[in-house]
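Re: [ENG-882] Designed sequences occasionally contain unexpected residues at chain ends

Forwarding the minimal case from QA. Structure tokens:
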């Protein structure tokens, strides 16, 4: 076997691990998809999750793109498990209500800012990796782009989730700064 084929196999296996981690950790935290931040994934559900395993074929067409797919899959699974154990313990609906209760204590812009700030730190780390990687001839450059993809998803889906928390609150439950 040549080195490139071994890299393709390792990347395909890594993507499978990442996708399995994402799917299983989502199921662990939110069996009914109440806590799923991605609105499209929440609507389509399990068929999309199963289809996402096909992403493991990407490295056989492009190693670089395979790296960019593997990274966010692993990061999403990690994030799901980091927060998901509480949702699993409480139940997803009770966890969602707990998050809404927390949201009722501060202005939406503060919650949105925290989510975007979290994504921004990943963007900074990605930028550093892009800078020190040596350019597109190195797989670390594509790793950095995978990190940027994760940061983008975190920013987009995270702020969408926060918006959903606030949408579920009655105007009387919003903090004074939020309702003005």
């Amino acid at each position: 076997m040549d080195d490139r084929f071994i890299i393709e196999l390792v990347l395909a296996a890594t993507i499978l691990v990442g996708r399995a981690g994402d799917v299983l950790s989502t199921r662990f935290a939110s069996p009914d998809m109440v806590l799923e931040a991605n609105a499209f994934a929440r609507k389509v559900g399990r068929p999309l999750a199963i289809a996402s395993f096909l992403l493991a074929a990407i490295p056989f067409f492009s190693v670089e793109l395979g790296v960019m797919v593997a990274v966010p899959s692993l990061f999403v699974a990690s994030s799901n498990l980091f927060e998901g154990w509480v949702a699993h313990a409480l139940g997803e609906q009770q966890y969602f209500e707990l998050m809404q209760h927390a949201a009722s204590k501060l202005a939406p812009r503060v919650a949105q800012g925290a989510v975007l700030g979290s994504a921004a730190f990943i963007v900074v780390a990605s930028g550093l990796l892009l800078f020190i990687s040596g350019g597109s001839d190195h797989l670390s450059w594509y790793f950095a782009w995978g990190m940027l993809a994760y940061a983008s998803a975190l920013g987009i889906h995270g702020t969408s989730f926060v918006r959903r928390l606030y949408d579920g609150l009655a105007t009387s439950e919003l903090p004074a700064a939020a309702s003005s």
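QA comment: On inspection the terminal residues look reasonable. The mean pLDDT is 93. Proposing we downgrade this to a documentation issue.
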